[in-house]
Design a protein that fits this description.
6 strands; alpha/beta; Undecaprenyl pyrophosphate synthetase; 6-stranded parallel beta sheet
């Protein structure tokens, strides 16, 4: 059913950001969202909460994802492998259908600051000139999303009308859909959001 649902959409996001603005994140519900993303054919998934709880406990989240894979996909779960793209588990990314990054506020503005410092050092060492700085250069200097495309879609969960620091550089062209909560979210709610994204006409600022 999941694969068929993914193929039925007019367009499917390549990279989905799952942003939780609620104070009490649920590992089980987030794992369900990640597994649904994998099952419909989304290649890159980012998980973010503004307190960094998921990132600090990413092994617990991974265990829950593997458990949900078994429960939701059964014998088919081997077809839906997931890899962590965080620095400590980079080796698991290879040959995976879906790649997961678990992010926190340090991967947002702080990463931009580090990139700016790195560029200034290159200029000071005369390896670059100030005129070399452009969008592509800054993209290459950002370490937290290395190898990931910019998010096509962000699903924001919770009452806060803000993404609370989620990749501020990367979401300038991202479609953002707000949902009341990730707690006890159903597959139907998730797929409805994907359907809404597929129907959106992106005008790229025009």
């Amino acid at each position: 059913r999941w694969r068929a649902d993914g193929r039925a959409l007019r367009k499917l996001p390549v990279h989905v950001g799952l942003v939780v603005t609620e104070e009490e994140p649920s590992y089980a519900d987030m794992a369900s969202l990640v597994v649904w993303c994998m099952a419909v054919g989304i290649s890159y998934v980012s998980v973010y909460d503004h307190n960094g709880i998921f990132k600090r406990n990413n092994s617990r989240l991974m265990d829950e994802i593997l458990k949900q894979q078994q429960e939701l996909l059964g014998l088919d779960c081997s077809k839906y492998s997931v890899g962590f793209a965080n620095h400590d588990k980079t080796g698991q990314v290879l040959n995976c259908q879906s790649t997961l990054k678990v992010l926190s506020p340090e991967d947002g503005k702080a990463d931009i600051v580090k990139a700016a410092q790195s560029f200034c050092q290159l200029v000071a060492q005369q390896q670059r000139t100030h005129s070399d700085l452009d969008v592509n250069m800054l993209d290459n200097l950002l370490s937290s999303t290395h190898g990931f495309p910019d998010p096509d879609l962000v699903l924001k969960f919770g009452p806060v009308d803000s993404t609370l620091g989620f990749l501020p550089w990367h979401i300038r062209l991202t479609e953002i859909i707000s949902l009341p909560s990730h707690l006890n979210i159903s597959y139907e709610e998730f797929f409805s959001a994907l359907h809404h994204y597929a129907a959106c006409e992106q005008r790229w600022g025009k």
